[in-house]
Structures are given as C-alpha cells and as structure tokens.
C-alpha cells in the first residue's frame, strides 16, 4: 500500500511539474506545431521499441528453458527505463528489471543470464548497425563509430569478468565478503544463484540457429524503432532530407552517452 501511494505521489508530481513548465514556457504552442499523426507515429515507434526489448527476454528465456511472458518482460523493460532515468550512468536499470522478474517467479541465476544475454546481443550487433549507418549516410564519419565500439568492448569485458567471478559450488566466501557478513546460509544462497546462472548461461551458449535469428531480429528491431522516434515526429518529408541529423548522429549519441558517468549522459544527447 505504501509503495503504491509513493508511486501515485511521484506520478502526480511529474504531471503537475509538466503542466507548470508547459504553461510558463509556451510549450503547448510548440507541441501543436507538429500534427497529431506525427505524435502518434512517434508514440508507436517508442512502444514498438519497448516491446522488441521485451521480446528479446522472451527469446532468451526460451533458449534457457524458462518461460518469460511477453507482458512481464515488457514491464521489466519499462521498470528498467524508469530506474535508469534517475540513476548515474543508468546503474539502476538492471536492478529494476530484476525486481520485476523476481516478483513473477524467475530465479536469480536465470535473471542474471537474461541480463547478460541482453548485453551480449546488444554489444555484438551495435557495431554492425553503426557500420551500416556510416556506409549509408554520407555526413557521418567513421570516427563516430569509436564510442559504439568502446561501449561494445566494455560491455563484453564486464560480462566476461562476471562469468569468471561467478562462484562454484565448492568455493568458499572471499575474506572481503566475510567481513560484510556473507557467510553460512547467505554464501550458500549466493552459490546456488551462481550455479543457476552458469547453467542458464550454458543454455545460451548452445542456442539454436532459430533462437539466434529471432534474437538478432529483436535486437535490430529495437534499435531501429528507437531511431525512428525523431523521424516520426519530424514527418517523412523532412526526415528523408535530414537522415543524418535525425537517425545517424542520434544513434552514436544514444549509445555513447552511457560512457559518461553522470546522470543522463551529462546532457550529451541534448547537446547533439
């Protein structure tokens, strides 16, 4: 009850602040410059993007033998967006996703494997998408690919370290964790989660070609849908003449911003 009241108060505060800002800044006039069709198209692209990310969880779960309903997976993605929006470098995104998944019966080790699979799929396909954009758009230089490649390498490195550090069943708690009280039942619980994670990650390594193709389609689909939001707002005529500004550079800014360790990427997206 308290949690729901807190959420209701937060949403009310956002609504009140939005109304005040719009009334004092001439926002309504700016909003109505664009047609309702443009707004609906952008909303559709945004909704499709979230659903594609949810579908990716469903596909990863199927590869591991875990049932993750599309509705729950999509709710987890929305929670991740909310948690990431209010934390430095979107550090609250994955914990928020995990919270939704664990409430609906997904085990901790499987949640870890879902998050790892999501990151790996993104890190592998982002450079491919970046290269396609660079070759398709004349005004986007090859140097812009640096941020995307850096993100991919960093993500894959972190995943490798996480898998390597996952404790085995016969391992003992490190002294540092013992100082924080991670001993006995707590350590056994952590080892059980790690064992589930290793088993689930093994299932991901043995994904069938069908699952791999579906995973790639969902990942590319979510990236494409995210990049369609600005062109949808601008309209087809304007978007076609300004693809680099509305599609190319936003791509590199969206995926380069997580490298900057401050909330919202330090405003780098807005500056672009």
Description:
By secondary structure, the protein is mainly α. Helix content is 77%, strand content 0%. The chain has one domain (36-271). The chain has 14 helices and no strands. The longest helix is centred in the N-terminal third of the chain and has 29 residues, at 36-64. The relative contact order is 0.12.
Give structural attributes.
mainly alpha, disordered C terminus, 272 residues
List the SSEs and their pairings.
Layout: H1 2-25, H2 27-31, H3 36-64, H4 70-85, H5 93-103, H6 108-136, H7 145-165, H8 175-179, H9 185-205, H10 209-227, H11 229-234, H12 236-241, H13 243-256, H14 268-271
Please provide a brief summary of the model.
This protein has 272 residues and is mainly α.
Low-confidence spans:
258-272
Shape: globular
Name the structural class.
mainly alpha
Count of helix runs: 14
Helices and strands, in order, run as HHHHHHHHHHHHHH
Q: Could you say how many structural domains there are in total?
A: 1
- Please give the alpha-carbon distance between the first and last residues: 42 Å
CA radius of gyration is 21 Å
* Helix content, binned percent: over 70%
